[in-house]
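User: Quick sanity check before I run a bigger batch. Here is a single chain. Can you write out its predicted 3D structure?
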Amino acid sequence: MRIGLRVIVSVAGLVPLLLAAVTLARTGMQNWPAAITFGILIVVGCLLGFVITGDRRLMPIGQGAYIGYAMYASMVPHQGASVAQIIVVGAVCVLLGSLPRIFVEGGVRLDLVADRVLILLLVPPVVRWTDTWLESMPPVLSISGMILAVMVVLLLQITLMGLYQYERAGGRLLALIRDELQVRWPFQLLGALFGVIVALTVYAVGLLGLVVAVVPAGVTQVAILRWSAVRSTRADTVRSLSRIPELGGYVDPGHSRRVGDLVLDIARELGISELRSRRAVLAAMMHDIGQLSLAEPVPGGTTSLLDQEEQRRIARLGAEVIREGGGLDDVATFVERFADPYRRPDGRRDDNVPLESRIIRVANAYDDLVGTSPDPELRLQALERVELALSRDYDPDVTKALGRVIERRQRLPVG
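Assistant: Done. Predicted structure follows.
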């Protein structure tokens, strides 16, 4: 049985956490009021966590409160807290803030544990070491050094997230790290800035100053939660819309979802940014909407076997439906052009066909031939049929990426 990177990181993180707990048991707690106040803020921040693109769960307020606690403890070393205390308080509060989700999901998600380990274990010692190293400098430089150290830890965490994605789904490592940076960094930065504000406010006016810092952060959190809810509603709408052809008997059950999953894997293999990939997935899930205009369903829903003009007509009608929804013009274009061959009749590449459309065309043709069959031989035959049409219909680079994806999925040699 292969042990994944998340398991290794999670188990390795238990060692310093246990050492911190033992150290704290020997030395005892310091400054209980600060520990309780920051702890409550960490718990509340975890409870207010939200999910963004790619099932990433973030909690910038909780993370910011933890960073603020580490910075504040370094600013007042004689009455603050030891590194061990900060780590233990943070771990306990993150666990408490995660209990409702643990009960709902019926267990602890290892990926979420691994996501938190690096920040929990590295922020306190790095902040303390930086403050000690710069203690002879002016306060502005010392605080700036701590902020820079926190940013480095956050970048390390984002890099680790990219490694997790690479291990799970493959693709291009640098592109995956870039995607994690694009998606996570704004929220990571928000949490870090909140932590700095909290630490400076409490240092200047005491624990009651948290009220001043929490109000604007709370307003921002509410806005983020509403934005997340809107995104979730749109995703649910797209999923519902994509199922209409299936419910009407025009395509096989699960076809749109399978094509969407395959499009995402191919896009990752090609190094396309996640933002573009997600738009391509939306188009893939709705690419068969135009089939509702047919008087009789195509046998098996295999539109890739229809003549070219009929494929274009179906794609065009589907694009018109998508445009009516508003805000999805690019997705509609991907659907409209996915029926167009890769090459023109004169043999030259058609640069007017978006890459996203070319990916959907290849993924759709492959799934039309394979469907839900688990037969590895059939999957190889389907891949060969797609490759035979490279002279006109399909993008060679996309088809090669499909081959690598299928090879990784099935662990079969691809010729």
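The two ends are 28 Å apart (CA to CA).

User: Great, the batch can go ahead then.
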